[in-house]
Amino acid sequence: MKPGWEAVIGLEVHVQLRTRSKMFCACANAYGAPPNTHTCPVCLGLPGALPALNAEAVRMALSLGLAVGAKIRPESTFYRKQYVYPDLPKGYQITQGPVAVVEEGLLEVPGDPEVRGASGPVAIRLERAHLEEDAGKSAHDLRPGASLVDLNRAGVPLLEIVGAPDLRSPQEASDYLKALHRLVVFLGICDGSLDEGSFRCDANVSLRPAGAQAFGTRVEVKNLNSFRFVKQALAFEIERQAALMEGGGTVVQETRGWDAQAGETRAQRTKEAAMDYRYFPEPDLPALRIRPEEVEAARAALPELPEARARRWREAHGVGADEAQTLLQTPAFAAYFDALAEACGQGKAAANWLLGEVSRLLNEGTGGIETFPLAPASLAELIRLVESRVISHGAAREQVLPALLAGEGSAEAIVAARGLAQVSDRGAIEALVAQVLAAHPGPVAQIKGGKASLTGFLVGQTLKAGGGKVDPKLVNEVLAEALAKA
Ligand code: ADP
Ligand code: MG
Ligand code: ZN
Fold it and tell me: Are 204 and 230 in contact (CB under 8 A)?
């Protein structure tokens, strides 16, 4: 950030809702089907076809609203936003009018200490979330000399979440976007696919002199579909606007696009050239009325929210804050962790296994935790054997886990069949230690002389003498005692 300036950022996020059917018709809401196979008179805008509102989309909007502590409007309305474009067959988009079904929520993000002076979470206001429909998709590069239109996406339900201009740096904007993305994915209302356009963002940014109250003129960067692009586009815009104003120029209100190749934003259209959408109330849809029972039903159906889950894991299992964030990578991963922690009764060890060995194996393959062949209960048995020191961590990782994955039976059966149970008989270990000390008089003398770092060598020798089956913790204890007496 250039000294002397403060950035003001507000994001508008378009979330494609994971409903079965489209917003106003019974066509499937399905990505990737052959072009123009999910269309009907309603989403094609044929004369006389009438829209009917999708109740599932409404429930999803309530779910988001309640999760961010927003107000649910008992009555909201739909409008027609009119413009002409080949992928908009009706010639207008149905969207909520001045009153949206969800208004005034809050989303917590880690504040950026670089711009706020202190660290700590900040609550970003959500101004509103309104229901609308997506447009179709134009492809200008599939057939030379022609533009193609696919209307499968026309009429797909969208929830547009308009954030207040409360963000103060590209980092905060990206953190906000990630928090919102995780929330909609954990609520089950969006598949979260950035590549398929299920979660897209327009970023508004202006600068004001540090300490000033009034906002400067904003620029809107359209259609950012990655967290990184949002950060890069905002950083570029902040530099551009600061340089412009420092050079005596003024920022014009306009929409710009992000050119990822060039790493810069480009002007698209100015406010003067902005379209007049000639909004008017949608005559074919009644007002959207939400009864208190519907709000309560949506509240009762809310899952445990990601942040609450992270807090529970920290408090119940002593899982670290960063580990908790990693465990929240997908709803399936978080669910696997909950089941594993419950089954083995050792949350911290469960987290270590899941983030260590299991993640390493998943990274070697191609699938997520959904493809991991071991049920939480069977991995839990392995973890319990390690925690109760029946087997060493090394034997668990190098022998039992691969055998479990190869389908050789339960962890206990594998340990028994391969004779992996470790020696935790103190007498036996004392005998081993005595042998090792006798065999290495030199190192023993050096340790006595103050070179404590050589102790590890003797531990290693004892473990080796025990054929890798002696309990390392006990070896350490016994060795320390023996050295003290030596
Ligand atoms: P519009 O209806 O033209 O899109 P809104 O007032 O609804 O305009 O604002 C759209 C987005 O722009 C919101 O996310 C808001 O936070 C953001 N925004 C508004 N004013 C500013 C500003 N001066 N600087 C940065 N962002 C802004
Ligand atoms: Mg807007
Ligand atoms: Zn349709």
Answer: no
User: How many Å is the Cα radius of gyration of the chain?
Assistant: 30
Pair 59, 208 in one domain: yes
Give Cβ neighbours of residue 388 (< 8 Å, ≥ 6 apart): none
For the CA of 52, the nearest ligand: 3
**What's the token pair of residue 123?**
């609550």
> How many domains, in total, are found in the chain?
3
Q: What is the pLDDT of residue 154?
A: 97
The answer to whether residues 344 and 379 belong to one domain is yes
Same domain, 358 and 381: yes
182 and 60 both lie in a single domain:
yes
pLDDT at 2 over 80: no
pLDDT class of 425 with cuts at 50, 70, 90: confident
- Identify which has the larger pLDDT, 364 or 424: 364
User: Does the residue 298 lie in any domain?
Assistant: no
Pocket test for ligand 1, best of 107, 125, 162 (most atoms within 8 A of CB): 162
Q: CATH code at 446? A: 1.10.10
Sign of the dihedral defined by the CA atoms of residues 117, 120, 121, 122, in that order: negative
The residue whose CB lies within 8 Å of the most ligand 1 atoms, and thus the one to mutate among 169, 204, 253, 269, is: 204
- The reported pLDDT for the residue numbered 486 is 73
Those residues whose beta carbon sits under 5 angstroms from the ion ligand 3 are 25, 27, 40, 42-43
> What is the average pLDDT across 207-227?
94
DSSP SS3 for 117 = coil
228 and 154 in a single domain? The answer is yes
Query: Which of 74-83, 334-343, 359-368 is the least confident region?
Result: 359-368
Domain encompassing residue 337 = 304-418
Measured from the CA of 205, which atom of ligand 1 is nearest? Answer: 25
Q: What is the largest CA-CA distance in the chain?
A: 98
Looking at residue 269, its pLDDT comes to: 83
Distance, CA of 463 to CA of 435 (rounded, Å): 12
Report yes or no on 297 lying in a domain: no
Q: Is residue 109 part of a domain?
A: yes
**284 and 212 in a common domain:** yes
